[in-house]
Amino acid sequence: MPPDLLRAGSLEIGLGLVLLAVFVLNLCARGADRRWLALVATAGVGAVGVLSLLVPPVPPAPGAMFVLDGLAIFAKRLFLCATFVGLLAGLSQPAATGRRAGEYHVLLLASLLGMFVLASARDLILLFVAFELMSIPLYVLAGFAKREATAVEAALKFFLVGSVSSAVMAYGLSFVYGAAGSTDLGRVARAFAAGDPLLLLGLLAAFAGFAFKIAAFPFHMWVPDTYEAASTPFVAWLSVAPKAAGFVAIFRVYFEGVGDAARLWIPVAAGLATLTIVAGNLMALPQQNTKRLLAYSGIAHIGYMLVGVAAASPMGTAMVLFYLVAYVFGNMGAFLVVEALARAEGSEATAAFRGLAQRSPLLALAMLLFLLSLGGIPFVAGFWAKLYVFWAAAAAGLYWLVLLGAVLTVVALFYYLLVARRMYIEPPERSGRVPLPGTLALAILLCAVGVVVLGVYPKPVVMAALRVAAPLF
Amino acid sequence: MTRLPVLSLITWAPFVGALLIMFTARHRPRAVRLIAAVTTGLSTVLSVWVYAAYDREAAGFQFYEKLALVPPLGISYELGVDGMSLLMVLLTSVIIFAGVFASWTVAVRSQEFYALLLALVTGVYGVFVSLDLFVLFLFYELAVLPMYLLIGIWGSTGEVRPRGIFAWAYRETGVGTKEYAAMKLTLYLLFGSAFILVGVFALYFSAGSASFSFLDLEAAAFPPAVQRWVFLAFYVGFGILAGIWPLHTWSPDGHASAPTAVSMLHAGVLMKLGAYGVVRVGLGLLPDGAAELAWLVGTIGCVNVVYGALSAMAQTDLKYVIAYSSVSHMGLVMLGAATLTEAGLNGSVFQMFAHGIMTGLFFALVGLVYEKAHSREIRRMGGFGRVMPGVATAFTVASLSSLGLPATAGFVAELLTFMGAWRSDHVWWLFPAVAGTFLTAVYVLRVAKQIFWGPPSPHFHHLEDARGPEWVALVILTAVLVLFGMVPGLALALVDTATVPLLSRIVGP
Questions:
Q1: Long-range pairs, A69-74, Cβ under 8 A, ≥24
Q2: Is residue B130 within 8 angstroms of chain A, CB to CB?
Q3: Buried (b) or exposed (e) across B192-210, using 16+ Cβ within 10 A?
Q4: Do A406 and B145 touch (CB under 8 A)?
């Protein structure tokens, strides 16, 4: 293996070793309690996370298939962060620590590996393979509780919608290849900048695949059912990591190296953002199940990120990356609190939150922070995220989109505040603290710290995002 | 520069108080109240000092502080006061200081109550003293959000149940309950903030100077088309907070359901924050847009005056009467500003102050009455003047100011506004304005007579007059109301230094 590729692929190699280790250890494992296997996976992801802080960006060779530039490193740190929190939260969960712990973790790590490669891919074929490597384990994981009918239904729905959009994407990419005469994304970008209508058509079709992965309207149908049926720590991770990967891939394919022609995507992204924000927020309103509520609100968040994409500028791109960071902490945190309550109360309904502030004030405070962050309230992470994508859109002259987005945040606050109201205003139905396993508490604490730190001092992450987004244009 | 950052001290002292309360005073209700009184007292003393030390000859923004926060984007923590904002800071100080004493008897979760209240006040001060629009927006959000919990947890639900079609609405939405009011108020105000955000961005990008500073934006000349729509955005955004018709419905519900100190602060100060925003940012930065759309602002102001007064007449719940009277009086504030005359604008700013104190006093009194009688229903009460003479006197003074009797602050404000309307391009505004004053006399005197001066009600026994700390609020507010009515120059000399330059940008010198 050439040394350049070795250096660029060091994180993938590290993750691959962790994956193999978990796989082999699982073969040797005996008995029903395989918590140690989960610990190995978590520690491995943590170690790769440390490694990711050490690797420097490698200047890409011209025409390279696989690059480790600033964007790739930023994205990989984000995936690792989300995965670490997700695995940590899963440590207290029977499905992830029982007899099938090995399968669970191998699948999850394989999907993570797919995201890693996706973030670095500069070639259509590699991109597609990475995309599938990321997606297929997700289908399996969604139906991991194979004896529950709802889980099987959710997995099937996820799989069907997913494979159809993969097919459309592959079809679109074939047009792209036909028009550009190359699978190298650099050459595709140059051909696109030259203005080839067939290429435009191909890229539009391929967008369907990406829109499915990030769950933009109208490709969102799988989200609520899958989120409701799958295990919560996995859903927390599913709601952030693959979406981040989808956005990075969008930047790679649609923005990198195309120059001013990127402005062609403004109407597409702005239209999709409008639909997604409106649909996500309105459909979240009547939800009584907290996971479904978060699923629909998550769709709305994707819409806000698309506002940043619609700016089609380095700033817009950077602010989507920042939004993703804020979203990782806010959304995962909220899901994990739901998990804590569901385990204690056996219910995922919003009614389970009644009087939480008087039973477990700290857990309620954490949830309030997450909700405020998701709602975009000052001094927590989500506020800056929304503000910055609006800023980028306003700089691109899309004032109407900013107004629409900002007005619909009010709708979002309505349903977030309903949960806050249950926690703080309504009296508790039961007394006594909500029992909280240590690892889950730690995961929630990590998310809360992230939300607050990013809310008070967002500058380093914003600057890093701006730095990695600048070379794309 | 070694000068004391007075404005920062005024702004952040309550916030420090909130933190102290959260972390040091757990389960010690006396300490909580003491910290709240001391920190808001500090702000009050400093605002009075700033009021005395402000150089009226030099005018302009004084006590200037600046600290660059994000230099590449042009965001800085920039504070300063001119005659107008100074008066508003003074108003805030008086109301919150009185409010701390008015809510002395809050028993449930009082630690959180005071902490949220003080955090809210920091937001209010911040809006009045910020010269950086971005920071102003942050403070605005800080001033709105604690309100949700304050009303939702410590508020009260009216006992008058709706009938007819309203009964259906009540079952479906819970309209009239504190939870409903809290949600409605929060959503309305955040809806407004969406418009403000877009307006701020539009100014930032069309000025092209990469700065959010009010002073830099004042120097920029915006094209007329931009001025028009941005003014409209600010008018809607800030106007919601000022209770403009038809976006005012959050205000009666919210104010009626809120706990005493929050009603005082919200009706007394936060609604002014909206009017202040329209005058400072709308009129101040977009002179052409303001001149072009003044007819709209004034006309809606007229609707507010009459509609608010008529609605107040129809209420049977004491708190709703006062809440609707705010809607009516805020109409006068907007009307005064829309006349674009010196008298009218001075009247508008003076009305903000006078109405703030007056409505603060009203809500403090209503809170006292509610606490002692446990009722807000006007028809059940009567003859309270015999058992609570102090409360009755203060209520009468506030009523007289509300209907604009000479020697009260309300009179000066209304007279100036009428003079402004007379000199403006729209003389007909005078008729609804005067009619509103008449209607105010009708509902306010009727309520005062029924509750305090009528025959004693058989429903209530053993009522007591105000006691101890409760007196502090009443005395301060009544005294200020009469003082500024007798010597309006105390405020007007100050306001004039700010309004004259502002007007000269709109209508020419």
A1: A69/A468, A69/A471, A70/A467, A70/A468, A70/A471, A71/A119, A71/A248, A71/A251, A71/A252, A71/A468, A71/A469, A71/A471, A71/A472, A72/A119, A72/A120, A72/A248, A73/A468, A74/A321, A74/A464, A74/A465, A74/A468
A2: no
A3: bbbbbbbbbbbbbbbbeee
A4: no
The reported pLDDT for the residue numbered B171 is 67
Say if residues A276 and A412 touch (Cβ distance below 8 Å). Answer: no
* CB of B248 closer than 8 Å to CB of B300: no
Tens digits of residue pLDDT in A80-111: 999 999 999 888 887 777 788 888 899 999 99
- Which residue in chain B is spatially nearest to A412 when comparing CA positions? B187
CA B399 – CA B380 distance, rounded (Å): 20
pLDDT at B175 over 70: no
Length, in residues, of chain B: 509
State whether B197 and A406 contact (CB < 8 Å).
yes
Compute how many other C-beta atoms are within 10 angstroms of the C-beta atom of residue A165. Answer: 21
CB neighbourhood size of A348 (10 A): 19
DSSP secondary structure string for all residues of A448-469: HHHHHHHHH--HHHHHHHHHHH
Helices in B133-177 by DSSP H: which ranges?
Answer: 133-144, 146-154, 165-173
Nearest-CA distance B184 → chain A (Å): 9
What ipTM was estimated for this complex? Answer: 0.78
Which tokens go with A387? 């503000």
Residues in chain A: 473
* Closest CB from B187, B198, B201 relative to A410: B187
Interface residue B70 vs chain A (CB under 8 A): yes
For A410, residues 6+ apart whose C-beta sits below 8 A from its C-beta are: B187, B190, B191, B194
Distances from the Cα of A182 to the Cαs of A132, A173, A176, A191, B196, in angstroms? 21, 11, 8, 10, 49
> CB–CB of A410 and B190 under 8 A?
yes
pLDDT of residue A117: 92
Q: In chain B, which residues have their Cβ closer than 8 Å to the Cβ of A390?
A: 197, 201
**Distance (Å, rounded) from C-alpha A454 to C-alpha A322?**
10
> Which residues 406-425 on chain A approach chain B with CB closer than 8 angstroms?
406-407, 409-410, 413-414, 417-418, 420-421, 424-425
Taking each helix axis from N to C end, the angle separating B409-423 and B318-338, rounded to the nearest 10 degrees, works out to 40
For the record, the structure tokens of A131 come out as 């995309």
What's the CA dihedral at B388, B394, B399, B400 to 10 degrees? 130
Q: Residue A451 pLDDT > 60, yes or no?
A: yes
Q: Which of B183, B202, B233 sits opposite A417 (nearest CB)?
A: B183
Q: Do B193 and A406 touch (CB under 8 A)?
A: yes
**Among residues A305, A284, A235, which one has the least CA distance to residue A410?**
A284
Across the interface, whether the CB atoms of B152 and A394 are under 8 A apart is answered no
Q: What is the per-residue pLDDT for B507?
A: 76
